Amino acid sequence: MSLIRTASPADVPAILGMIHDLAVYEKEPDAVVNTAEMLHSHLFGGNPQIYAHVVESPVPGDPIVGFALWFLNYSTWEGTLGIHLEDLYVRPEARGGGHGKALLRTLARIAVERGYARVEWSVLDWNEPSINFYHSLGAAPMDGWHVYRLDGGALDAFGAAATAQATTAQAGA
Q1: What is the pLDDT of residues 25-36, one digit of tens each?
Q2: What percentage of the chain carries pLDDT values higher than 70?
Q3: Is 134 a catalytic residue?
Q4: In angstroms, rounded to a whole number, what is the distance separating the alpha carbons of residues 13 and 147?
Q5: Per-residue pLDDT tens for 95-151?
Q6: What pLDDT was estimated at residue 149?
Q7: Which positions ≥6 away from 39 have C-beta within 8 Å?
Q8: Distance (Å, rounded) from C-alpha 170 to C-alpha 139?
Q9: Whole-number Å distance between alpha carbons of 87 and 53
Q10: Residue 104 and residue 75: Cα distance in Å, rounded?
Q11: How deeply is 15 buried, as exposed, middle or buried, from its count of CB atoms within 10 A (0-12, 13-18, 19+)?
Q12: Rg of the Cα atoms in the chain
């Protein structure tokens, strides 16, 4: 049986290590720029905006074997909050033990207890093991939707144009 608990500051190095492991699995080994200091600040700073749960190893003294990192989203149509699961990861040697299911079940319980409308996440289209796992839980893809992202140079340029527009509007006032 999985022991799921809310992450503590002491878990940050292990969570960050698994974030790096996840990046390798998702074929983006050099994409992680997050640091232990950044992750600690976002999880445990003055006004946390992200949350994490971890799976403790059943072997005393072993590190945590998995985590779920999530944040709140909002449905304008339903007028309620939801959970967006950013990352779910279980170490390869611990897979098949029900840990991922226990993490997702914990998030579902939180959503139900708090009256949230949904738990949602993204999955890479080539990640068949995860897709099959999510289907086994009763989750379904959202047909007709595509995830878009504005980042890097495109984000900088688009944001700079808004800053220039705001500066021009203020100068004219």
Answers
A1: 999 999 999 999
A2: 93
A3: yes
A4: 30
A5: 999 999 999 999 999 999 999 999 999 999 999 999 999 999 999 999 998 888 888
A6: 86
A7: 12, 15, 16, 19
A8: 48
A9: 11
A10: 20
A11: buried
A12: 19
CB 19 within 8 A of CB 52: no
CB 60 within 8 A of CB 11: no
Query: Domain coordinates of the chain in residue numbers?
Result: 3-148
CB 89 within 8 A of CB 52: no
Helix (H) or strand (E) holding 51, with range, is strand 51-56
Mean pLDDT of the chain: 91
Q: Residue 83 carries which DSSP code?
A: E
Predicted pLDDT at 169: 60
Question: Encoding tokens for residue 15?
Answer: 């969570």
Strand order in the sheet with 80-90: 3-6, 51-56, 66-75, 80-90, 119-121
Token pair 């996840």 is found at 22
Q: Which tokens sit at 113?
A: 């207890």
Q: State whether residue 42 is helix, strand or coil.
A: helix
Q: Residues 51, 89, 116, 134: which is the catalytic one?
A: 134
For domain 3-148, give the fold. Answer: Aminopeptidase (3.40.630)
Candidates 119, 126, 58; CA nearest to 88 is 119
Distance CA 141, CA 120 (A): 9
